Structures are given as C-alpha cells and as structure tokens.
Amino acid sequence: MLAIGLWGVNRGGMWRDEAVTFQVARRTVPQIWRLLHGVDAVHGLYYLLMHAVLAVDPVPGEVVLRLPSVCGAAATAGLVAALGARLARPRVGLWAGLLYAVTPMAGHYAQEGRSYALVAAGAAGATLLLVRLLDGAARAWWPYGLVVAVTCLLHELAVLVLCAHAVTLALARAGRAVWWRWCRAVGAVGVVLAPLVIVSQGQAAQVGWLPVPGWGSAERVLRSFAAGPTGPVFWGCVVLVLLGLGRRRLSVVAGPLMVVPPAVLMGVSQVRPVYDDRYVLYALAGAPLLVAVGGDRLAGVMGRGLRWPGGRRVPRVRPVALAGVAAVAVAFLQHLPLHRVDRTPATRADNLAGVSVLAAREIRAGDPVLFLPSIARRAALAYPAAFAGARDLALRESGPRSGTLYGREAGPVELRRRLAGADRVWVVVEPYALGGGGRPSDASDRVKLAVVQEHFALREEHTRPGANAGATLRLYVRVRAAESGPCR
C-alpha cells in the first residue's frame, strides 16, 4: 500500500479541495481557529494536523501535502491484515491486506490531501480494538473510545462506524456487560463530538450541492469496494464475498463495517443529502476481509477434494497462501490501467496548477487581476508564486485576516471605482461564470460581470487543454483602449 500510494504521488497539480487544505494549513493556529467558527469546522482537527506537517518543510508542496494520506492508507492495509489474521487465519489477513492495497478506491484516496485516508485508518483501528475486547485480549475500553473520538473529529461522519459496531455486537450476541461498557465509550465520544456537531450544523450549506443518492450511487460504491469497477475481478469478488458471509466469526465484523455506514448515510440523504463516496471510504475495509475469507473457504473445499494417487489427502500448506497472493496480483494487473489514469490530474475535478502555469507566463508585476467568481482565487492561494506582483482589484481583506477561505472583497461601489481606473485587466474565470446561465449570487461578482461585459472587450484567452482544465485566463481591455490598437 505504501508503494502504491507513493507511485505518482506528485501528479502535477492540486485540485480545489486539496488547495483548501494547503492554504488553510499554512495559516497560524489562531487564524485556523478563527476560520473554523465560520466554515469547515468538520475538517478542523485535520487542518491543525496538516499545519504541523507542512511546517516541517520550509517550502511545502504537493508531495508533503499528500504524505499523511499515503501513510494513513498503509496503516489501514496493515490493520485490515491484522483483522483478517485475528478473525480467521494469517493467510486471510495477508490476502485481505494486499487486496485492500490494490483496490483502486484505496489508491485514489491515498493520494488526496484530505482527511479520508486517515479516517479509514482510525475506523479500522477502532474495529480491531473492538474485536480484541470481544475476544478478551484487552479489558480497557478507553483506547477504543479515544480512537473513535479522534477519528470522528477528523470527520464527523465517521461516527457511523459506531452503527456498524452496534450491529456487530448484536450479531455476536454480546452480553450486557459488554453492551454497558460499549455504551459508556460511545457516550464519551458523544460528549467530545457534541461541540463539533453543533458548529458544523450551522455550516451545513457547504454540502448543499450534494444530490440525493439513488441506486446508481449504491451500485458505484459496491463496484468501488469490489477491487475494481468492472470485469471478471468484480464478479469474482462478489462470489467470494457471498462465500465469506458463511464464516460467522469474520462476517459479523466485516459485513456490518462494509454495509451499514453507506446504507445509513444513503438513507439519511433521502431527506437531507449528505452522501458522497469519500465520506464512507472507511467502510471499504470490510470488503477485502469478506473476499479473503471467501477465498479461504474456497481453498478449503478444493483442498479436501484433492488426494494423491494412493488415496492420501494432499496437504494444504504454504502454496495455498502464495496462490492467493498471485490472485491478488492478477487483480492488480487487471486494473493497472485504472491505477495509471488515476495518477494524472485528469481524474480530479479540476487542476489549479493549469491556470497557475498560464498566469506565471502571461501576468506581469503590477497587472490588475479579477477572479470571477471569487472562489477562482483558490488558484492564486494554492500557487501564489504564479501571481506574484499582480494586483487583486477586488480583494479588500485576505483570507487569513478575515477568517474566511478566500478573503473578503470590496463592495459594489468601491469595486466600480477600482475598475474605473483600469484600462486592461486579467480575469481568472471559472468556465460557468460567463456562460449566461444566470446572475451570480454575490453582489461583487455581479459587478465584475457587468463591468467586464459593458466596458471591456476580450483581447486574449488562454486555456490549458483537458476536460478538467479548470479556470480560464482572459485579458480584457477597455473598449476605448481596444479601439486604439494592440496594447502589448
């Protein structure tokens, strides 16, 4: 998993969510704390963690940003292997850990500068602690509560792992004493998590863009969990999962972990949409466990039917484990093209490095710049060197000083005054902003759009190739200046 996570980790560009992590984590702790009161409280602990990580490197970049996720994914693979070894046998753990590592979904989020891979590690660690408690290998419940609390503080929707654990306790027919201790641990987690839940409820508009999930969402996450979206590997994993459900000791842990969090979140999202595949990445850990134990059952059935010519049974030894490793290798090779594509910027929603390259090439010191809409400023925040010396005409107060993500802009009157003195202006514009699909909701953005359309003419346009090229860089000149001829 570590090798797969490091492979192509410097893919050549941050996308919008990673850019938020990058620019927020480089603020001071008081500035981060102030920001969380207005936005992104759900990622607060992660931002503070990344603040410490980025401080290690004097000039942090994309690789340092993603290293915690790579390490989190590697830890998750190890924890999945430990679960398989404890709940079944060592070779099941070996197969499950390797299968988790080669699953494209795990590799994708191992290279995201966001919290999801770390949340997956926390959920797997909490599940292993629960199994140890149920086995009697551990007595103290506070480590379990601590790991769950930290995991939920990294992302509050990780709390659904507790729903999976409750189902596990019910299926395992845990006694009253176990239930009582588990409820106390959950209560402590609730006390720790309550302030975050209260604050984040006031910031719910941040996920207002999420749609109501349907059967397509369920099918997509199922295919993502099954070591790849298509082909014989997918159907082979489905068959092995069904076989694995017959191994009760493991299935009562892995089954709820795989099914309950996505199912509950999709159910809640029918009323209030909050579902996204990345929010339930931690549930992926259950799938390779079921596949691996299904493979173990299949190997056992085949082994019982094999006998030497004299009638003596063929012993099941180390070659069986190696055969399982070979099967995982075949699965990896089957989806190698998908892994390769995933290590390019094209697999993310946008590539802020693209517009920054254009800005570094075209914009000179002192040139005025507008960002339309204001969130297009994220390219300058992610790659400030590309916009060094440019004059941000609309910016009134920077993000760190204002306690916002992208800063506060001048009001409509002040913005018109600033634009009145410009004969030429570079506009970093998102593809949808000039499409005529409606007026911007922000007053400053409406002024930018109106002034540019009424008083300026397009002189140059620069766009990076690719479906997710992101923002476009345009040079506008005032109409009277445009009529006098080229300005450069």
From TrEMBL:
Q: Which UniProt keywords apply?
A: Cell membrane, Glycosyltransferase, Membrane, Transferase, Transmembrane, Transmembrane helix
Q: Where are the transmembrane segments?
A: 67-85, 92-110, 146-172, 221-243, 250-268, 280-299, 320-338
The protein's location, in the record's own words, is: Cell membrane
Q: Does this UniProt record's set of keywords contain Membrane?
A: yes
Q: How does it sit in the membrane?
A: Multi-pass membrane protein
Specify where it is mainly localized. membrane
> InterPro entries attached here?
LipidA_mod_glycosyltrf_83
Coiled-coil positions: none
Q: Does the keyword Transmembrane apply?
A: yes
Stated name of the protein = Glycosyltransferase family 39 protein
- Provenance organism: Streptomyces viridiviolaceus
Phylogenetic placement of the source organism: Bacteria, Bacillati, Actinomycetota, Actinomycetes, Kitasatosporales
